[in-house]
Amino acid sequence: MAYQDDNNGSSSGSARVLSGANGSILHTFNGDSASDYFGISVSAAGDINNDGFDDVIVGAYGDDNNGSASGSARVLSGANGAILYAFNGGSANDFFGYSVSAAGDVNKDGYDDLIVGAYVTDNNGVDSGSARVLSGVNGSILYTFYGDAANDQFGFSVHRAGDVNQDGYDDVIVGAYVDDNNGSDSGSTRVFSGANGSIIYAFNGDNTSDYFGYSVSAAGDVNNDGYDDVIVGAYGDDNNGTMSGSARVFSGKGLWTDFDSDGLNDTVDTDDDNDAVIDINDPYPLNAAISSDVDNDGVDAMVDNCPTTTNADQLNTDGDASGNACDTDDDNDGMFDVSDSFPLDGTRAGDPDSDGVDTLVDNCPSSVNADQLNTDGDSQGNACDSDDDNDGVADVPGITSVGLGELFACGAHINECREMLGK
């Protein structure tokens, strides 16, 4: 790359493709105009159009197509050097195209995709940065990832990561070398899933001014465990002297755990056991059968028959879904416990009329009638029945039988009885 080449104006830039067979020039590509800085970043692109020839991608972060230094990136045919795609930054000073790379087949459609960084976009604060994953089929945006905060400069470095989690989709890695997670400019790097764009891994630099994430790349299967690994550079690390620098290779498999098999690495999954209780509130984040003990009675809420009421004994007289501590009818006899003299005995409810007969069997539960006399055999005893003999004529007060042959029972009410019976 020669990003300050002056072929089409000062620092218009250029890039050359050279033969692996003999070093000859296969293609020369030039920036369009002055200060495009075309060639600031270059990468193999894979076979984008599936014509059997591998293609290339070139960034021009100073291009002005959508404003001064909005930036651009071009995908160029390996077969004939033609422009397959031209991507542009969204607005002035995005520096889109500062980093470019093949992304692998991110969406598993059989076509290689691309990733382009724009490390000074302002979506989450000034210079928070971003990175786009673009489809090899039609150039559409598959994913856009953003830096967390101002001056992270997320997207300064981008690269294909390989299939880190072995789900069949190629993943990508993005660096934010001045992220401040472990001190000013300690830096960070994230690996994103090709399948759904989620964060698979988040790595951080150790100390201030490590600039961890300045460079990132796929590492292949370094330890031959079947998982692709990644490598991250930290040029400001001081391990062997001021800014002696370092690079770390991270295992794809060794860091990958997905307890609930939801496709999210447990390091970034907020509910590792998928029990609907956020890990920070879950005493057992890796056990879906145990989530929490809200009422502090020693019984997990998942199995507690009164999850918000203390009841360590879990007593449940009627065997329904609610324990006695929170059940309003413990013996399921149809009478609320507060009115039930025997709340734990479904065969007895009490004797509110104090006649010695339980209300569950008393044919006049609110009228004294120890003898339970019931002349007509209906549901009500004579003491509370307004028509004891069920002849359609209301009883006369003080008379319990008024059949034709029972006038003698009228007593002092003989005249009323005769008039009522037509006698």
Features:
mainly beta, 25% strand, Methylamine Dehydrogenase, Chain H, single chain, 2% helix, 17 strands, four-stranded antiparallel beta sheet, 1 helix, 423 residues
Could you say what the CATH topology of the domain at 14-250 is called? Methylamine Dehydrogenase, Chain H
Task: Give the helix proportion (percent range).
Answer: under 10%
Largest sheet, if any? 4 strands, antiparallel
Q: Give the rounded overall mean pLDDT.
A: 86
Using the coordinates above, name the CATH class of the domain at 14-250: Mainly Beta
Calculate the terminal CA-CA distance, rounded to whole Å: 128 Å
- Could you list the spans in which at least 5 consecutive residues all have pLDDT below 50? 400-409
CATH superfamily of the domain at 14-250: Integrin alpha, N-terminal
Radius of gyration: 41 Å
Give the tally of β-strands. Answer: 17
From the coordinates shown, what is the CATH architecture of the domain at 14-250?
A: 7 Propeller
Count helical runs. Answer: 1
What is the strand and helix layout of this fold?
Blueprint: E1 14-18, E2 25-30, E3 38-46, E4 55-60, E5 72-76, E6 83-88, E7 99-104, E8 113-118, E9 130-134, E10 141-146, E11 154-162, E12 171-176, E13 188-192, E14 199-204, E15 212-220, E16 229-234, E17 246-250, H1 414-421
Antiparallel strand pairs: 1-2, 3-4, 4-5, 5-6, 7-8, 8-9, 9-10, 11-12, 12-13, 13-14, 15-16, 16-17
